[in-house]
Records
---
Amino acid sequence: MPIAGARPLELTGRAVREGAVPDPIDGKVLRSFDPATGEWLGEYVVDDEASVDEIVELARDATPWWAPATTRERGRCLMRWADRLAADAKELAVLLHRELGIPEHECHPEVLAALERIRASARHAERILRRHRIAAPSPRELDTTVTYRPYGVVGALGSWNDPLWTTVGVIADALAAGNTVVFKPSEFATAVGKFLVDAFRVANSAAYLNVLSIVYGDGRTGAALCRSGLDRVAFLGSLVNARRVLALCAENVVPVHISRSGRGAMIIADDADMAGAVDAAVHGAFGRAEYRIEVVYVVASARARFLEELRTTLERDRGGPAVSRAMKTARAIEIVGRHIDNALVLGATALIGGYGSVRPPFVDPIVLVDPADESLLLTERTPGPVLTVRTVPDVDEAAHLVNRDRSVSSATVSSVRHGTALAERLVAECVVVNRGLPRSQELSPGPLEFALPRCVIGGESGSTTMPAWVMRFTYLSVLRKLLMKYDMDDKLRLYRPFAVLSAHRRSEPEMYEGKA
């Protein structure tokens, strides 16, 4: 059986030769490499189905003592994890830069944001998951008290383009809610994933070894994890892969949380603060925003000002966000090249970059203006430092185009007078007005996503979404007290709704006689 661990790589060869990007999986070995220099970073044994099942069972064995721990105790474990990562922040930032090709100046803020994300889960879990009461809407119904319990074992499938902030958020939320977690990082971000898990194990005692586990591999390992009897799956990635995960989890009816990556869009109105709009566009398109801006819709009356300000900013700030990126996968390089060629052939104008901007494994910043409607830049997602600017007659047309594009998951609006009104018209997961697309606690799922609500005293109020056995327990536990307050006619009339849920276990006369 393969060992779910890593061993130091003794080879000193190069992964990238003459611009080629290799497949990280070689038989039963997964190799991590630096896409910019081609140097190997680590070697890991791929986990097969038997190994995955064993690791999931070890995580399940840790659930009986991890789940009953208080949120404060679990929060202390998360705080120790964050402190350990903070102590190794420089090392993590260097690893992030080397394995993902992220510019160095963006890696340190990325690490700091991840630390705050873990600490936020630790600080707020007790408040979010605390026992609370729901008042009955009428005197004939009952107040309900709700508590939360963890699912059990959560499988986290990480993404390669955002392996830190979003990943630690999902893991921290699941742990804070009392679940154990089996984490499968992307095969293109394995070293970063292992660093996170190792930091948790170093920060906490050996007793917490199986609270957070890791498995290595590609999509086949992820499929084995989805079929391994998990209680919940959290997936981070593209819509295409999300469909595959949903299909796999549907085989055993495993609930899934999807944090899908999507296209970011921006609308610039004629009354926009142009300096602020350009800054948001540059950082949203070329920086490490939570949702990368791929398309900017600018009204015709503001087009000239925006393009001039954008060109000036990019030429002036050459060391800023708009720098060359080392692409991690050969497919990503192929997509960028194909989309750029397609747009230029169909009449797009190159404001920055062009045909020569794709230099495998690097892609230089590219800004293309007004591609044709059928161009791939507008119909498909484009990885890398590529920004598309499209001119529209007015904001109504811009809003229509944003809402029509199903791949848009976030948007930002730049309008001094009508920003909020325009934002309310957009159908997107997140809409930001007059600023970029920052990371925020509100964009993450939170501990409630990984905790099951349970009505422990209850009544009809607020209980219709609970499992049937929970509703029976709730109703029967208070039935005898209710019947003591009414005469015979009221007893029968009040009792009938409860009898529907419980008739298969006790007859109505038996329960009325106090045998429930």
---
Amino acid sequence: MEGYRFLYNLRICCAIVEIIAANSNAMDISSLLTDRRLDNNFLRQLGSTPINQCASLPPGKLSNYANRPNILIFMADDLGHADIGYSEGSHQTPTPNIDKFAYDGIILNRHYSHPLCTPTRSAFMTGKYAFQVGMQTGAISEGEPWGLPVAFKIQPQYFKDLGYSTYTVGKWHLGSHTRNHYPSSRGFDYSFGITSGDCNWYDFTAGWMKPVPVSGRALRENGKIFPLNQSTTPFPELIASRAENLIAASPPNKPWYMFFATPLTHTGFDNFDAVQHPVKEYHLHINESAILKFEERVKQLGSIHALDRTFARLVKALKRKGVLNNTIIIFVADNGAPLPESADFIHGTNHGSNWPLRQGKGTLFEGGIRTLSFIWAPMLQRRGFVYDDLFHISDWLPTLYEGAGGNTADLTGISAVSHWKRFHDYYAIGPVRDEVVNNIDGVTNQYSITIMEDNGKLYKLLGGNVFNNSYLGWRRTEGTSTSDEMKSWTPLSVNCNAPEGVERAPCQPWLTDCLFDITSEPCETNNIASVYPSTLRKLQLRLRALNDTAYPPQILPYDPASNPDLYDGFWVPWKDIHHVLDPTI
């Protein structure tokens, strides 16, 4: 009920915003604030709601803010490179709704993320590489007392400076051991979802199988435990409905920013070796008979189908509200799909496909970090093309900030760059990024950097460990073969320029650094370190210099004091000591 009360109060706030917009002198709204229909708890809980924000604006400012575009971030989880229609043209995974907006927008062909959820989300939020904010090592598991340091300003805080209302729905995964790490304390006016990496879709429990079996409920709204212990609606559908309602209730004359982070297509969390997609409506009517015997792959196809349906639902919500043509939509995956061969190291596999790219989630090979992304924005003068420039996920902060009318000079201390002007006039403006640091992690000993030479070629150094260094290969999409690839060509189809999945010059990065020409040979089958020693040395020196900018890794082990059994079965901010339990108001 609390969530619906929020939306009801927000609708009243919308009416107040409309009154203010109609009369810039009507800034004294004390009489409206005493409206008995308006829940005072709502105002206390959300001090930066549209009504309070409007009350603080100087006359004339509201109309300026209203001209800014809305921003919808749609982040997919553990999505394989080959698992969307527009990428490799897979016949297994029709995604017509996502494909339509990708082809009508700008597809980012060289979009790079970090190899795991937490590092990627920290870079996305801060506009800095994960190693520059202490989030370079691993993904946060429940009960671990670490998170994105609160000293770093993040996206919702920047967009609030531009007059935006800010919402987050879905997965957070940037810390929950103190309330200051909750999204409700980091610039979001409204938050609904889980702070963990995933949850059971029906009772919202999250936890560990190793080192000890432990689980607790993890669903929260505005930082407080959400009183729903069991649901007939699966979690992905629950958050999609919440996002639809937020769009419907959004103030008509005030821009909003929404970070929608779905758990689709992440591995299930009941056991870490199988896909958790028992939702009947997610199961596709598979046309390819060759895939039917691959039971887990079929479940994953249902999950991908649900991802496409969810995207369509949010687009329809924008249309119903009448704001689609003033909304920037970003589709982005946090990392590649986790392969079965690496399941023991990354909490399982979802049977997604990165083929023909090498390896997957948790590694710095292309299958783990070259991720799917596009931008759709009606205000862009040129759309419907493939953007081949290097783009790092941290670049979304300055790019969107500039797209919203902000001055990127205000974004002090970030390492990301804006591509907004380049999007507008691709041929008049040169590339804005000539290197991407895929990660530098001294704890697990993983590091990689990609640079663009003056001739436009991309060279990539990769060194250190790959889990336990037992598997570094490629995995063909389940159900396919060389005689039946189940795909059609697309503008993004990767051409390996060599036999797919066959290593020519071996790469053993735990012994010596590897070097790849990923322009000519994007599938990383040919290690050319011995052929181009000067290029290798150049990248090694650059990595060494960048490592000097590293922030100390924040990772810490599981703390038994966090055990949900101590708190009625809930994960709580146990490190707050005096504020572990939710406030009563």
